[in-house]
Design a protein that fits this description.
By secondary structure, this protein is of the alpha+beta class. It has 5 helices and 22 strands. A hairpin with a 2-residue loop joins strand 20 and strand 21 (289-296). The longest helix has 20 residues, at 2-21. It is elongated and about 70 Å long.
C-alpha cells in the first residue's frame, strides 16, 4: 500500500515536471551563473531581477542546445521580478494554480535549468505560509510562502509546482537574506502586467523623512484615544508631494487615512496599497494645533 502511494506521487510529480518543464528556461543575463525563468505567456519570460545584470544580449536556453534572444521589458527589484520578451514563443500555455490553496506541509516541486539547459528539480514542503508580506526591499507580496527544500544555485526564477502540477509562483533567494521563498502567482501577474505596460512599477511616495516621538501629555487630549506617539517630520523634499501639500519641517504626523501612526512602518503600510495620484488624508500637530493636510502622492524617482 505504502509503495503504491509513493509510486503514484512519484509518477505525478514526474509528469508535472515534464509538462511544465517545456516552459522552463535558463536565462543567461549575468556572468558565471545563469538563472532560471519560465515562459509566462507567449513570448514573455519571467525570471528574477537579481539574475539580470544586463539589458541587452540576453540569451534564453530552451532545453539543451537551443537558444533564443531576449530583451528586458522591465524589472521590479522590490519583488525580485524581471520580465523578458523573446523573439519567438517557446512552448504552450502554462497551467497556473491558486497559491492560496497551499497549506503548511504541502508537498511542492521546484524546477530550474542548468547552464547547459538541462531540466532539474528539487522537492520539499511548504515550510511556512502567511498572508500579505512586505519584504525588506519594500515590495508587497500577496502571500509569504517559505520553502523547505534545496533551492540550488541557478534555481531562482524557476517555478514552484503544487501537488496537482500547477504553477503557484516563482522561486527566489533574493528577497529574504538568501532564504528560499516563492513570489505567488497573483503577485507575479500584477507585476508582469505593469512591467509590460510601463516598463517599471510606479511607486508612490510622500517626500519626507520622519522619526517616532512621544506626544506631550498636554496634547494627548486633542488626539484619538490612546495616542502616545507620532512621527516628527525631520526633512521635507523640495518639490515633493508633501511640500506641495503644505507639510512643514517640525510637523508631527499622528494620523494617516483615518488610522493612528506611531511608527514609520505604518506609513509604509499605507503607501503599499496606494497608487500614484491617490490623495492621502493626513492630520498633523503644528504649533500645538491640529491641522488636516491632503497629500497627492507622487511617483518615486527611479
Amino acid at each position: 500500500m505504502a509503495n503504491s502511494i509513493l509510486e503514484t506521487i512519484s509518477s505525478e510529480f514526474a509528469s508535472a515536471a515534464e509538462k511544465v518543464g517545456s516552459n522552463v528556461v535558463a536565462v543567461q543575463a549575468r556572468r558565471w551563473m545563469p538563472t532560471s525563468g519560465i515562459e509566462w505567456k507567449k513570448g514573455v519570460v519571467v525570471t528574477v531581477h537579481h539574475g539580470v545584470q544586463r539589458d541587452e544580449e540576453i540569451k534564453v536556453l530552451v532545453g539543451a542546445g537551443r537558444a533564443v534572444s531576449a530583451k528586458l521589458a522591465g524589472r521590479d527589484p522590490s519583488t525580485d521580478i524581471a520580465v523578458l520578451r523573446t523573439e519567438e514563443g517557446i512552448s504552450g500555455a502554462l497551467q497556473l494554480g491558486d497559491s492560496t490553496s497551499l497549506r503548511l506541509g504541502h508537498l511542492v516541486l521546484a524546477l530550474g535549468r542548468t547552464r547547459r539547459g538541462d531540466l532539474v528539480a528539487s522537492s520539499g514542503i511548504v515550510g511556512g505560509i502567511s498572508g500579505e508580506w512586505r519584504n525588506r526591499q519594500g515590495g508587497q507580496l500577496d502571500q509569504h510562502i517559505r520553502l523547505d527544500l534545496a533551492l540550488y544555485p541557478g534555481f531562482s526564477g524557476g517555478p514552484l509546482l503544487n501537488a496537482r502540477g500547477e504553477v503557484v509562483g516563482i522561486n527566489t533567494r533574493g528577497l529574504a537574506h538568501g532564504r528560499a521563498v516563492t513570489v505567488p502567482v497573483a503577485t507575479v501577474n500584477r507585476v508582469v502586467e505593469e512591467l509590460l505596460e510601463k516598463g517599471r512599477i510606479a511607486r508612490p511616495y510622500l517626500g519626507i523623512a520622519m522619526q517616532p516621538v512621544e506626544v506631550p501629555e498636554n496634547l494627548r487630549s486633542k488626539l484619538p484615544t490612546g495616542t502616545r506617539a507620532a512621527l516628527l517630520v525631520m526633512q521635507v523634499e523640495n518639490g515633493g508631494p508633501a511640500e506641495k501639500a503644505g507639510v512643514l519641517l517640525g510637523d508631527v504626523i499622528f494620523e494617516v487615512g483615518g488610522k493612528k501612526v506611531e511608527y514609520v512602518d505604518a506609513i509604509q503600510d499605507a503607501l503599499a496599497t496606494a497608487k500614484v495620484g491617490d490623495v492621502l488624508q493626513v492630520r498633523v500637530i503644528r504649533a500645538g494645533e491640529i491641522k488636516p493636510v491632503s497629500i497627492t502622492l507622487g511617483e518615486r524617482a527611479r
